[in-house]
Write a structure and sequence with these properties.
This protein has helices at residues 14-29, 45-54, 71-89, 101-112, 135-143, 154-162, 176-190, 199-204, 223-236, 251-261, 275-284, 294-301, 316-321, 331-343, 345-351, 363-372, and strands at 5-11, 33-39, 60-61, 93-97, 117-120, 148-151, 170-172, 209-214, 241-246, 267-270, 287-290, 306-308, 324-326. By secondary structure, the protein is of the alpha/beta class. The protein folds into two domains: 5-175 and 359-372, Glycogen Phosphorylase B (Rossmann fold); 197-352, 3-Layer(aba) Sandwich (Rossmann fold). β12 (306-308), α13 (316-321) and β13 form a beta-alpha-beta unit. α1 packs across α16, α9 runs parallel beside α10 (251-261) and α14 (331-343) crosses α15. The longest helix is centred in the first third of the chain and has 19 residues, at 71-89. The radius of gyration is 20 Å and the shape is globular. The protein binds uridine-diphosphate-N-acetylglucosamine and uridine-5'-diphosphate. Uridine-diphosphate-N-acetylglucosamine is lined by residues 13-15, 42-46, 65-69, 71, 74, 99-101, 134-135, 216, 218, 249-251.
Length: 373
């Protein structure tokens, strides 16, 4: 009888793919595991960008994405589709990451079959079920029955213990996003051609200070997005800065940003960048303006101040370390906080310290060892 553990890893969006490819690389190379990859296709284009650079070929692809999908229709498609694959595969472990609809449905479909779930990036909590929405509830659902919680930091492990999760199944592993960042940095160093797609915009903005921007949060749709666009417009009026904004494929983001920002000289609205190009953007920018979760972890690791356009964060470690600051989505506040970093050298220096509370780049190996126990 074989002692090989069959692992089905389930994911569907860009950030999950980025944070799981380091674990998949480890599982694929380790004879203790039979690694099977199930992608939901919740994101089509942005998922495929990551699969390609990371060299991951899924065994199953549900291709569930619909334009401007609603949460309930997406959830229904995910749950039934994932359940059917789990019935076929009969794994020893199901691995999910983070807090997306795919992660929640993957975990729930496993629970319905009494299969043990390993939750990667467990224990993040904002304490507010509408910020971020619906992610706070998605991760609490997964956390309520996971058999193994890979918490990135002591803070996230504490949150789980406070919810009475058995401490024996909570492990601080670091966040695999740092493994991913190390991997992509090494790839780009070996193959500089991987980031040549930014050369044109870099030349166009030579001599200006670059602000990297991303935005996609559901709770910011409407007024919040409009405020963000207006703040960018005001910042773009400065001659000394340029804003590079790879725009998320969600139509709710694209419509507003294209309408408000497409014609501005100091703004480059780009298609979503693949991971090498996004790492390059982080490298060349002076500061980052974002409502993303993953970017809040990557920017501090690279010593880039990050202003977070959210009311709360489930990643307090960057704020506590002084490399991240919550600025919400008020137009005046965003402009004021960006200008403070641009015009006050001491304020900039205080935030621009490379600090890495989220991991040491060895998280995937730790998680694999836990799965093998
Ligand atoms: C999802 C996750 C969110 C995560 C984010 C990362 C949920 C509920 N939301 O939000 O937690 O932070 O991904 O980016 O799980 N689209 C495309 N191509 C793509 C990707 C998206 O066209 O490659 C468009 C489609 O019209 C799609 C829409 O964006 O319907 C929304 O995608 P969806 O995955 O539902 O939500 P996100 O806002 O991307
Ligand atoms: N990212 C990318 N290309 C882009 C923007 C972001 O590769 O154009 C990467 C980024 O490095 C980070 C992840 O995507 O690892 C974050 O994804 P997103 O902001 O969509 O989701 P969140 O982290 O907020 O769930």
């Amino acid at each position: 009888m074989s002692n090989t553990r069959k692992i089905v890893t389930i994911f569907g969006t860009r950030p999950e793919a980025i944070k799981l490819f380091p674990l998949l690389h480890v599982l694929e190379a380790d004879p203790r595991f039979d690694s099977r990859v199930l992608v939901s296709g919740q994101h089509r284009g942005m998922l495929d960008q990551v699969l390609e650079i990371a060299g991951i070929t899924p065994h199953h692809d549900l291709d569930v994405m619909h334009p401007d999908q609603t949460l309930d229709a997406l959830t229904a498609r995910l749950l039934t589709g994932i359940g059917a694959v789990l019935d076929l595969e009969q794994p020893d472990w199901v691995v999910v990451q983070g807090d997306t609809a795919t992660a929640m449905c993957g975990a729930l479909a496993a629970y319905y079959r009494k299969l043990p779930v390993c939750h990667v990036e467990a224990g993040l909590r904002s304490g507010d079920v509408y910020h971020p929405w619906p992610e706070e509830v998605n991760r609490k659902v997964i956390g309520s029955f996971a058999a193994l919680h890979a918490a990135p930091t002591e803070t996230s492990a504490d949150a789980l213990r406070r919810e009475n999760v058995d401490p024996a199944i909570v492990h601080v592993t670091g966040n695999t996003v740092i493994d991913a960042l190390h991997w992509i940095t090494a790839r780009v160093a070996a193959e500089p051609g991987l980031v040549s797609g930014l050369s044109e915009v870099e030349a166009r903005f030579a001599g200006k200070r670059i602000i990297g921007v991303t935005s996609h949060r559901r709770e910011n749709f409407g007024v919040g997005m409009r405020n963000i666009a207006n703040a960018i417009k005001r910042l773009a009026a400065r001659e000394d800065v340029a804003l590079i904004f790879p725009v998320h494929l969600n139509p709710n983001v694209r419509a507003i940003m294209n309408e408000e920002l497409a014609a501005l000289d100091n703004v480059a609205l780009l298609e979503p960048l693949d991971y090498p190009h996004f790492a390059r953007l982080l490298d060349i920018c002076t500061l980052v303006l974002t409502d993303s979760g993953g970017v809040q972890e990557e920017a501090p690791a690279l010593g880039k101040p990050v202003l977070v356009m959210r009311e709360t964060t489930e990643r307090p470690e960057g704020v506590e370390a002084g490399t991240a600051k919550l600025v919400g989505t008020d137009e005046d506040t965003i402009v004021r906080e960006v200008e403070r970093l641009l015009d006050d050298d001491a304020a900039y220096a205080a935030m621009a310290k490379a600090h890495n509370p989220f991991g040491d780049g060895k998280s995937a190996a730790r998680i694999a060892d836990l799965l093998a126990r």
